[in-house]
Structure formats: structure tokens, C-alpha cells
Amino acid sequence: MTTVDLGDRFGGDGVQWGAILKDAGMAALVALVLTLLLFGVRLSDGGGGGLQFRPWWVVIAVASVFAGRGAVALWIGTRKPASAAALPWFDRALARLSQHKRLLFAGFFLAVAILPLLPVADRRMVDLATLVMIYVMLGWGLNIVVGLAGLLDLGYVAFYAVGAYSYTLLAIHFDLSFWACLPLAGAIAALFGVLLGFPVLRLRGDYLAIVTLGFGEMVRIILINWSDLTGGSEGITGIAVPTFFGLRFTPTPAAGETAFHQFFAIPFAGIHKLIFLYYIILVLALLTHLFSERMRGLPLGRAWEALREDEIASRSLGLNPVLVKLSAFGIGAMFAGFAGSFFATRQGFINPSSFTFIESAIILAIVVLGGMGSQVGVICAAMVLILLPELARDFAEFRMLLFGGAMVAIMVWRPRGLLAHRVPSVRLGPEPPGARRGGPP
Amino acid sequence: MSALGQPDAMVPAMLEVAHLSMHFEGITAIDDVSFSARRGEITGIIGPNGAGKTTVFNCITGFYRPSVGRIALDHEGGRFLLERMEGFRIARDAGVARTFQNIRLFPRMTVLENLLVAQHVKLMRASVFSIAGLLGLRRFREAEAAAIEVARGWLDRLGLLMAADREAGTLPHGQQRKIEIARAMCSEPKLLCLDEPAAGLNPRETAELNKLLLDIREDYGVGILLIEHDMAVVMGISDRIIVLDHGAKISDGTPGEVRNDPAVIRAYLGEEDDPPAPSVPGPPPGGGRP
């Protein structure tokens, strides 16, 4: 741990004043270089366009950096050496919680299941919960590619876009229902996943990340420029909402048609549609979860993990790397396609600006912060990363700052993600007490 | 099996390596090497560092495509020309399994999972592209239970049952070596290629390894190719030994023959000396080759 090393440098036997002063001095020097022009010189507003010098600004900045850095070093030097484990109390709390994991998961699942029916649930809350659920599903889908197969994919949003546009175009041009389009959109997205997989079969790590990033941008730019089909940057509007067994959610049903509220003889309320959408995404997300948990115990899922761990050893055991990689890309993309269909139907309109790189980055952040391969971690990370910015709308300008701060904090204290524990897919002996499992969300 | 590995004309060779050469951008790593190996025998490959032993292995197991030469494997599954096959097919179809000089277990997976990945081909077939597996059909569940039994059998044999559910990367070096051999055997090979299995083992572990390899030869009738620097292992258990030096084969015969071959003594100890060859010191294990 770096903190321990620093502790030795500044503390050890008594406080090392020399080291602390030197460290603070270096920081102050950097601050001087940085602020000399940034703070110290200013173009004057007056007509002449001359320069204004503000030496005091620089002095204050450098002095505060010196004092701040010195204080931090002093604090590191005088405190007790940190334990090597990152946030031990966090692990202890997790261990305690996991003793009651079945109860916890059951309770959480129940809460999620009845959330929209609670009296406190208003439109905004249900809508927000739906949004979080979309990202949870995307996170679980990407987890197959990144967490299990270890293929760093920075263009995951491309498949989300393919799913959304496939659904929309199929629904509009062929007049197919949501339920008929959903599997088709998933299949088309999976096809694109395999398509992307082929050229990147030989790439790993950074190189793979770059190519997938490019792929994501390609898809977005094609969507913008192929205006005949996709409506360009205007997008497509008027996407139908799925029906509840043929019952539409509308206050004014067409002649001879029964709307949802009429069938159940309740007054019309806009929230019915939202609640319905919430349950659709809940089911889709659960499907993703159950599928990937199940896959982990199957030979293909184990092959994904083996490939992540050591590709050469996998090949020496007869695993076909082409098949293993393409299946991971394809299946991961399929779930993004499902999520994309849902996104399109929920929004009612789509345009390429919903599928920018930042979306890929957020989904990847959810997977990485949650702990690669951890299903529960994805839920936690999605709640933090999606709910926080939505709830803190007033701080919208600082959204990225919060985001970056959270990332840095996690990487410092839990470098392998919030819940980094890997649960074996199969056991010979009994499960040790207190072991955590990725149960139902 | 022929006594002391005396070439037995009646038993045909399983692996025939003929005129194998491998060039890397002008450097000749292997130069016209020919040898054969039989099933039910342990064939040792020795030679000073840089002699080309691991390159021979990489050619046989498909990690390199040889520049010249033929590598033919014959067994009841058919005849395979390994120099033309992709690496994973050599493992899957031709039945060649290998271990690595620097252990390559799947470190974050448990020992049991490692042994199950080795049975991938069989399980994948039973899971019918994962569909039978997803549905939890009996056909798949039975195949998986059988695979777990195979793994349990190997762990029992190695005395590592207690480690089954531990992450492979957390185990001591000696145990990882054994598990890597067990993993290779779980893929039901016809030919087992071991790249310095005794590297980094203490004398007790080395003795256990010897016994394990002899048992494997006895019980499974596989052919074993063994690269090793530890002379106690090679001389003790090999039926035949092939000696490479600077990419060329310089000797081929029983341990007794090889030990007294002047060419071998020269290669290891230089021209001037005439010391007792059996104590030929191996270069330190885990040398710098990839």
C-alpha cells in the first residue's frame, strides 16, 4: 500500500519534518509553475489589450498548496499505520450481512417488486427506478463480456443503439408489436456483436478497447448520416408503447377498442404505463441475471472465465478461442439489444445522441466499480452512478466531478471494485459459512 | 512396454517427428530434428539451456508452426499431422495435452473449476451448445456429475481434495505443478507433454512427481514427453532420452546409453573434462525462456 510507504517516509520513528517540508515544497513548486500564468497574468478588459499582473493570486495559491500538502503529509506521518486490507470494516460489514444473505436478497427483491405499487411511488420515482434498472441490465450484459470473458469493450452502447433502432424500424415499417420485435432486436444486436468480434479476435486489452471504442462511434455516426433509414440526428418519433395483453395505455381508445383502464374499470392514470414499463424492465433484467448466473456453471461460461484467466492455457486444453470470444460478444450484445428495445419503447423517440461514448463509459464504470464479474456489485454501482446525479440535479454542473471523485475513491480503497469476491461456480465441499453468493437481486 | 525402453520393433511409435526445423527471423531454433515416442513410455528431452527443447514442444502442441518437417500422431482416434493443425484442435481432436514451464493454471478459478475446464470438450457436447445446460436437462447434469467425479478422483490421487474449492492461484508452487498435470490429464490425452514439471520442486515433491508420472504411464497408457533439467527425474523415470544441443539432436537412446554418450558429455561439460556424466548438473530451473 502506498499509504503505508508514505507513513514510513513521513512518520516512522517520530515525525520526519525534513521529508514533510521537502514534499510540501515540491508540491508548492508544481503549483507555482501551474499558477504563474493561469492566475498571475490576465488580459485586461480595457481597449489596449495589455496584460495585468496579479502576483498576490499566485502567492496565495502557492502558499495554500504548501500548507495543504504539508498538513496531509503530517497527518500521514502521525497517524497509526493503516491496515493492509482496503477498508477492513467494509469487508467485515459485508461478511456480517452475508450471513443473512437469503433474507436480505428476499427482502430486497420484494421491495423492488412492489416498489411501484407503494403509495409513495410517484411518476418520477417509478421513472427513475426504471432508468436504474436499464443500467443494471446493461451492466449485467456487459459483465458477460468484460467481467466473465475479460474482453474490455468500450463500445457496448453500439449494441444498445442497434437494439433500439432495430426495434423502432421493425415496429414502424412492419407494424410488429413490441413482443415480436424484442427477440428480433436481440438477435440483430447479437449479430452485430459477432460482427464486431471477428476483426478483434486477435486483440487483447488496450488494443481491443480502442477498436471497440471505434466501433461504438462508427455505429453512432452511421445512425446520424444514414438519414433515409434512421432519420439522422432528428431521430425517429412515435414509437408505440407495448400493450398489456392487447390492452393499450391510452385515455382515448379508438372505437371498438378497450383501453387498460377501461378493462379493469379504474380511472385512467398516466402512471399505469410507467408501472407496466417498470415491470417489463424488471423481468428483462432478471432474465439477464439468471442467464448469466446459469452460464457461469456451464462449460461455455467456464470457458469465458478460463479465457479471461489465460488464453494460452485455454487453447492447450482444446477450447476454441474463436467460438468462446464470439459467443461472449454475441450474447453480451444480445442483452444490450433487449435493453435498447426497451429504451426505445420507453422514450417513445430515439436519436443518436442517446448513444454517445459517455453511455459506454458509464456502463463500463458500473461494471468496474461494482467489481468485475459481481452481479450484486452492478446493482450497487448502478444505483450510485445513476441515482446520485439524478437526485443531485441542482449540482448538475458538478456531475462529472462527483463521478470522477467516486471513481478515484473506489480505486484507492477498493481497487478490485466494491464487491470483488468471486463465488466459485461449483463446489466439491460444503459452502463455507458466511460466504457471499450472487443470489437474486 | 519394452523393458528399459529398449526400442521394441513390434510397438509402432505414436508420435513421429521428422526433419523438424524452426527458424525465427534467421535464427535457427531447431535444426532437422527427428525422433519418435511410443505410447506407454516416458520420453525425456534434455539439453542445455537454449537447446530448443521448449520450441520442439511448442511445435508439437501447435503454438508454433514449424518451418520445415512433419509431426505425425497415430492412435486409435486416427492419424493427425500436427504441423498443419491449429493449437486448440491438436488438444481437442488429436489428444495432445501439455503443461507449461511457468505454470499456467487459471489463477482466480478454483482447483475444481480448473479441472472442469479441462473437460470442456466432453461437457460442451453434453450441454448441446449450452441449451441442454440452461434447461438443466438430465443428460447434462449427469455429464457434469461424472466430470466432477473425474476431478475428484484426480484430487484424491494427488492428496489435494482439501484444496478443491480454493482459488488455484493461492496454492503453493508444488501443488500448482501437480494440479496442472492433473488438469492436462483430465482432458483425456493420448500424449502428455510436460515442460519442466520438476522446476522449483523440493526433493520430496520431486520424488512424488516421479511416482505420479510412473503411475500415469501405468494406469492410462499415455505417451509422455518430458522436458526436464533435473537429472534425478529424467534418468530415473524415462524409458528413452533425446538430447538436444543448439537445436540439433545429438543423442537418442536409453538413459544408460545417453549417459555414456561422449557427445552428451561434451555438450554439458565442455571438451576438456571427463567427469562422471550421471551427476550432470542441470542449469537452474525456470530459466529465462518464455
For the structure shown, list the relevant keywords:
heterodimer; A: 441 residues; mainly alpha; ABC transporter involved in vitamin B12 uptake, BtuC; 18 helices; 1% strand; globular; B: 290 residues; alpha/beta; Rossmann fold; six-stranded mixed sheet; four-stranded antiparallel sheet; disordered N terminus; disordered C terminus
Task: Note the topology.
The complex is a heterodimer of chains A (441) and B (290).
Chain A: H1 2-10, H2 17-38, E1 41-43, E2 51-53, H3 55-78, H4 88-99, H5 101-114, H6 123-148, H7 157-173, H8 178-197, H9 205-225, H10 227-230, H11 260-263, H12 271-296, H13 299-309, H14 311-316, H15 321-347, H16 357-370, H17 375-391, H18 399-413
Antiparallel strand pairs in A: 1-2
Helix pairs in contact in A: 1-3, 2-3, 6-12, 6-13, 6-15, 6-16, 6-17, 7-8, 7-9, 7-15, 8-15, 12-13, 12-15, 13-15, 16-17
Chain B: E1 15-24, E2 27-37, E3 42-46, H1 53-60, E4 68-75, E5 78-81, H2 87-92, E6 96-98, H3 111-117, H4 120-126, H5 131-135, H6 138-158, H7 173-186, E7 191-195, H8 203-220, E8 223-227, H9 231-237, E9 240-245, E10 248-253, H10 255-259, H11 262-269
Parallel strand pairs in B: 3-8, 3-9, 6-7, 7-8
Antiparallel strand pairs in B: 1-2, 1-4, 4-5, 9-10
Helix pairs in contact in B: 3-7, 6-7
Structure report:
The complex is a heterodimer of chains A (441) and B (290). Chain A is an all-alpha fold and 441 residues long. Chain A folds into two domains: 2-78, no CATH class; 90-413, ABC transporter involved in vitamin B12 uptake, BtuC, CATH 1.10.3470. Chain A has helices spanning 2-10, 17-38, 55-78, 88-99, 101-114, 123-148, 157-173, 178-197, 205-225, 227-230, 260-263, 271-296, 299-309, 311-316, 321-347, 357-370, 375-391, 399-413; strands at residues 41-43, 51-53. In chain A, strands 1-2 form a two-stranded antiparallel sheet. The model of chain A is unreliable at 434-441 (pLDDT under 50). Chain B folds into two domains: 1-95 and 189-290, Rossmann fold (3-Layer(aba) Sandwich); 105-188, no CATH class. The model of chain B is unreliable at 1-7 and 273-290 (pLDDT under 50). The longest helix of chain B is centred in the middle third of the chain and has 21 residues, at 138-158. Chain B has 290 residues and is of the alpha/beta class. Chain B has helices spanning 53-60, 87-92, 111-117, 120-126, 131-135, 138-158, 173-186, 203-220, 231-237, 255-259, 262-269; strands at residues 15-24, 27-37, 42-46, 68-75, 78-81, 96-98, 191-195, 223-227, 240-245, 248-253. In chain B, strand 7, helix 8 (203-220) and strand 8 (223-227) form a beta-alpha-beta unit. In chain B, 37% of the residues lie in helices and 22% in strands. Chain B has a six-stranded mixed β-sheet with strand order 6-7-8-3-9-10, sandwiched between helices.
